[in-house]
Amino acid sequence: MTPADRLLWRAVGSAGWWTPVLAVATVAGAAAELALPAALGRAVDVAVGATAGESAGRWLAAVGGLVVLLVGAGVVRDYGTGAASARSVAGLRHMLIRHILALDPRAAARHPVGDLVGRLVGQVADAGQAAPTIVLAGTVLLPPVGSLVALTMIDPWLGATFVVGLVLLGVLLRGFVADASAAVAGYQRAQGHLAGLMVEALAGARTIAAAGTTGREVERVLTPVPELRRHGTRTWTVLAGAATRGAVLSPMLQLAVVTVGGLSLAAGRLTPGDLLAAIQYAALGAGLGTVVSALNKAVRVRAGCRRAAEVLTEPTRRYGDRALPPGPGCLELRGVSVRADDGRPLLDGVDLRVPGGALLAVVGPSGAGKSLLAAVAGRLRDPDAGEVRLDGTPLPDLSAAALHTAVGYGFERPVLVGETVGAAVGCGADPAPVARAAAIHDFVERLPDRYGTPLAEVAMSGGERQRLGLARALRAERLLILDDATSSLDTVTEYRVNRALTDRADRRTRVVVSHRVGTAARADLVAWVAAGRIRAVGPHAVLWDDPGYRAVFRS
């Protein structure tokens, strides 16, 4: 079973008990639809006197009952289709979001953000139609097969005529599924590409406006439009072709049944009621619209499952089940190497030991690998070779809760997550202490509801946002990693924050990526990174004697 097939059945399962309800309602509706022409035919025969000894009222009551059943089944089917789809879409989106957020960073980088959003919003919505579509596909042949049986029972010649028509319909539908599948899959790929380019453009909107390159960006974002139009046109062409052929063949088939039925009526083999029933069965069985609609839905569901399953096959970050032993927060990198997708070394054989409770400044020229080293140190990225240990425990062996409790990250451009300001800080019942250390408490106290203020209603500068992110990082119990986390602060605020971070009373291990000579001077140790390697480790005062080290800060 392919990943797309597994996702398809997962979607059906997410619909819960609505799937059997839909199946019962659909089958009941199809049965009533097939029984109605026969009941009408018998009522007509009784009314015109073609059948003696029967009560017209009984057959009229049967017709009324079948109509009520048809209406009831249609209501349940329509409501159940919406309810089942909603449950499936919700279940699939929860699953996909959890998987996307748990992806290994390298796997996530293979999919542009816009493409992931497109799959989550568009393709999952298609895949969520799996339950009603499978029910529809499983029952779509009931009307034509039932009509064939009924026509054969009325008159074998009518059945033979109808078989010829069904064979012609099958020939006309040949190739529809393959053509429609290719067109829909191509359309969804182009749609994802367009969404990815659009997200990139929106993220860099200010840069684009400042550079005056709006025209070029519009052309770049709209690059997939011709492909989108081509696949869209192909989709509608395939559908229109199938519908057109059906529109031509269906009345011809009904006309053939009417002709054969009329001859049988003239020969005395049929009653007027039988002819009426035969005409209705011919119309019911020859209706191509339902079959084409079912096939089109099946194609879209299958394509949606395939696109969503592509993301679900990407590997997620794996965690162990160990807790950290007691310790001061000693950080060790042993033979750590990280390579780019093209094999180029980004970090090459890095060995580094940071004593527990020490403040380590990571410095080096742009592109040296400082941020990557910081990402590896806290397991934002796993190395391709070597290992990282915290108090002697390899980071992959730690449970997710143990790792996230022990390690905190502060970034240059933090993303704040949570409904309120207090939730964004994320330090439990009392976020004030870490907010004071990040010099953001006074700002929060001026908000209408203080830490309970909805985050979406707070207008913040870059520095205030950075300090809130820093406050969240300060919840770490054992290892604090800051990657240019004070770059947007003014001089006075940065001084206050740095004093808190370099306080000797803070017993956590701190790794600070910085370009500031003052930060390096206050650190216990400095790791000088160059071209993906550790060039030297030592106190700032000792390294300062090297002209190359001094040049790092001049650049």
From TrEMBL:
Keyword Transmembrane belongs to the record: yes
SUPFAM superfamilies: ABC transporter transmembrane region (SSF90123), P-loop containing nucleoside triphosphate hydrolases (SSF52540)
Transmembrane segments: 15-36, 57-76, 130-150, 157-177
Residue stretches making up the ABC transmembrane type-1 domain: 21-300
PROSITE patterns to which the protein is assigned, alphabetical: ABC_TM1F, ABC_TRANSPORTER_1, ABC_TRANSPORTER_2
Principal cellular location given in the protein's record: membrane
Keywords attached to this entry: ATP-binding, Membrane, Nucleotide-binding, Transmembrane, Transmembrane helix
A Pfam family annotated for this UniProt entry: ABC_tran
Keyword Transferase: no
Subcellular location: Cell membrane
Residue span(s) of domain ABC transporter: 331-554
Superkingdom classification of source: Bacteria
Membrane topology: Multi-pass membrane protein
GO molecular function, one term: ATP binding
Entry-linked InterPro entries: AAA+_ATPase, ABC1_TM_dom, ABC1_TM_sf, ABC_transporter-like_ATP-bd, ABC_transporter-like_CS, P-loop_NTPase, Type_1_exporter
Protein name in the entry: ABC transporter ATP-binding protein
Phylogenetic lineage: Bacteria, Bacillati, Actinomycetota, Actinomycetes, Micromonosporales
